[in-house]
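Researcher: Good morning. I'm working through a list of sequences from a screen, and I'd like to move beyond sequence-only analysis. For each chain I'm collecting a predicted structure so we can compare shapes side by side. This is the next one on the list. No need for commentary yet; just the structure.
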Amino acid sequence: MKIQYSKGERASKELILLNRQSFEASSGRKMKVMLIFPPDWYPSEPYLSLPSLTAVLRQAGHTVIQKDINCEMWDWYFSEDFLKKVFRRVPQQLDRYRKLAKKRDLAEWEMDVQLALCD
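Model: Good morning. Structure tokens for this chain:
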């Protein structure tokens, strides 16, 4: 068996169509796919891999659901309900650190948190 490495070559339209036809002929079934972009990514610029993959899969006739959990997370973080919960917790945490400071010396990281809560 000879392995052909075609890394870096551009795919021609004919090659793409040929691959699509051979896939459809071999499987014949359409798939239902969910693509998920996970949370905890800084949204400084759009992440275009999932939309691109979604477009290709839909063009091939597959049903695709695309979920951007990262955007949903940031929407939730800045929602009114979440911010109200955070603002209710700040005085509770400050009070906790004050009581803790009376019993023992606070660790450096605890002092940093306390100062951040005061700002």
